Amino acid sequence: MSNSVQAPSMYPLGTIFPEKDYKRAGSEMVMHYWVVLDQPIEKIKEWVKKYPEWVNHRDPKFFNLTPLAVCARKGNHAAARVFLDNGGDPTLGDHKEWTPFHHAAVIEDKDMLKLLKEKVEDHAAKRLLTHHQGTYEDFQNLFSRRLPLPKEIVCDYREDGVVKPCTAKEFRERTGAIFCNHPFITPQEFIKLWMNREDSEEIDPRSTLLQTDEYERYLSHPPRLSFGKESPSSPQGYDVYVEQPVKAFEVVTTYEGALESEPSQIEYFMEGINGKKIRNLGPMVNDGFPNCFCRKVVYKGILHLMLVAMKDLKSGEKLCWNYGINHGVKLDIPHIELNSEARLCTFFAH
User: Fold this and answer.
1) Per-residue exposure over 43-75, b if at least 16 CB sit within 10 Å of its own CB, e if not
2) What is the CATH number that goes with domain 13-141?
3) How far is residue 44's CA from residue 81's CA, in Å, rounded to a whole number?
């Protein structure tokens, strides 16, 4: 019997390696199937000894997964040790360039990561990059991020021209949403996104209109923002204000929420980001004559939506961007069609 750990149900190993196709898959795929089917470890040892050349076998029809990657995805430590002791390479990537390290990080299997590190120098493991997903440590950081505690100050609230700190609890009471200033995703949803995304849909960071260094500058020194209402009866709900000067073409804020492969609702859902129940101030920026515009950037494998200043912004200035006619941000608010001057301004900004 294997000593597997519990892996998320979204790992479709049974779909990739269906038992009914076992005999037709070819002898070189036997090791993969035996790990999936929880065959006795002695049986796997015997096959590894007999066919050592298949220890690192990859087949495009099976996502280019190595037997060791299957072990990492399933959490089978005993089989993983057998492969590692017999030439299994933990640095080989699959068709999305995930290594066994990445798969272990996704199911949050620290023991598997420790086992893999025994065969790879730590500094080398940290350089195991993929074009679109980052290092396995980026994966770990993505899933280990927590939401703020109720008493934590998360942003500022503006009322009658006075700006004061706002706690996570107060933000939720006012907006009905949980504050989160980073992408929020579960391992199960991350797997679903990965499985559903075609290669043609991958976004090459070099082709995005916003460079990653601009995003990194924003992360190190994000502008101070606040939210509030111009009047209690404002039809647009809360507005977002910049509380310090921001220069043209600097990132003002991000559009954060829960990353989803399929929207649970249309409102507040943009580019796979659901800002309905979990959000920062980005999804609260209103539609109107724009002083900022939206840009995309892929940073460490995650798509981010940036709101970039179209002009120099003064402290206390309200942020607006053009939702577009078929917007899905605040559906209860009529879209403000731009006049010719606004359209011209938006055209040149893009």
Assistant:
1) ebeebbeeeeebbbbbeeebbbbbbbbbbbbbb
2) 1.25.40.20
3) 11
Residue 200: which residues within 8 A CB-CB, separation 6 or more?
A: none
Structure tokens at 293: 């515009």
Asked if 74 and 36 count as a contact pair (C-beta separation under 8 A), the reply is: yes
CATH T-level fold of 152-349 = Beta-clip-like (2.170.270)
C-alpha to C-alpha distance for 282 and 226, rounded to whole angstroms: 11
Summarised one tens digit per residue, pLDDT across range 221-242 is 999 999 998 776 666 689 999 9
pLDDT digits (tens, 9 = 90+) for 33-79: 999 999 999 999 999 999 999 999 999 888 899 999 999 999 999 99
257 phi and psi, to 5 degrees?
180, -160
Count of CB atoms within 10 A of residue 31's CB? 27
- What ranges do the domains of the chain cover? 13-141, 152-349
Dihedral sign for Cα 162, 255, 192, 122, please. Answer: negative
Identify the residue whose tokens are 């089978």.
Answer: 76
pTM recorded for the entire structure: 0.74
